[in-house]
Amino acid sequence: MDCLDRTNVVQGVFSRYIAHEQLQQLNLLSKPINTHAKRSPFEKFPNALEKCFREGWTDNADAMSYLYTGTPALKTDFTRTGKRTHKGAFNDGVNAVTR
How far apart are the C-alpha atoms of 46 and 97, rounded to whole Å? Predict the structure, then answer.
């Protein structure tokens, strides 16, 4: 994983956290169950919004990666589904060699 993909992962964590905070402030998302603890930067959204967030973030990662490297982003199987797959690892290998 190169710096482009690491940057995307870190930005995804920050954007998830900020989106949670903004939606909570707008009363569009409930507050964390444990109000004494801080919200986790990895906390999932409700199902439909989670899918939308993951798809949008992965599409953005691919678009940025194409601009810089000419290949799709690495680890997009994980970004889209939350799980690594054999196909995703193979695609990452192909894309890394192509880069």
Answer: 37
Tens-digit pLDDT profile for residues 5-43: 888 888 888 999 899 989 999 999 887 665 556 667 778
Which of 9-44 are b and which e, b meaning 16 or more Cβ less than 10 Å from the residue's Cβ? beebeeebbeebeeeeeeeebeeeeeeeeeeeeeee
Q: Whole-model pTM?
A: 0.78
Name the strand (E) or helix (H) holding 43: none
Residues 76, 61 contacting (CB under 8 angstroms)? yes
Structure tokens at 89: 């690892």
